[in-house]
Specification:
The chain is mainly alpha-helical. About 60% of the residues lie in helices and about 5% in strands. Helix 4 crosses helix 5. One of its GO terms (cellular component) is cytosol.
Length: about 150
């Protein structure tokens, strides 16, 4: 089943950018994310249109955050990505003649709507700043762990 990983990828890139003091090129972001620079540029273009990032051309150019991390939620980013489908599962037949399948579709539709509304509401409460803080805590713990690790001989 094909999954849409754009939200996860974009959040990954945004957190790298937030932790970096200078613009990051598409090549650098692509290496961080394990993807192609063309994919980065295509994805970032939508975020630029939403005012979340900006790009600078030339020497020392690249992508940088253009928004307040405290004010931007995952819901905002999901919207900037064109509101991709939350679920990869769906109906066997969108317009069935079979009454059984109609009942199944109705039940699934209701459930999908409820779960999607709950997920998007949670996205509305989670900011980029909260993700950045979690990353900073994890990085500090990792660095402390590495300092406490005895040198391998």
């Amino acid at each position: 089943m094909k999954r849409d990983s754009r939200l996860s990828s974009v959040l990954h890139a945004l957190l790298h950018m937030a932790a970096h003091d200078a613009p990051m090129t598409s090549d650098v972001l692509a290496r961080c994310m394990g993807t192609n620079p063309v994919v980065v540029r295509r994805t970032m273009a939508g975020l630029r249109e939403a005012g979340l990032v900006k790009s600078e051309k030339g020497h020392n150019g690249g992508w940088s955050i253009a928004c307040d991390l405290e004010a931007v939620t995952l819901r905002d980013i999901h919207a900037a990505l064109g509101e991709p489908a939350v679920f990869a599962i769906g109906h066997r037949n969108e317009a069935p003649e079979c009454l059984v399948e109609q009942a199944v579709n109705a039940a699934l539709d209701d459930t999908f709507r409820e779960v999607e509304a709950l997920l998007l509401e949670r996205f509305s409460r989670l900011t980029l700043a909260q993700l950045a803080e979690d990353f900073a805590r994890r990085l500090a713990a990792h660095r402390q762990q590495m300092r406490n690790k005895p040198d391998a001989v």
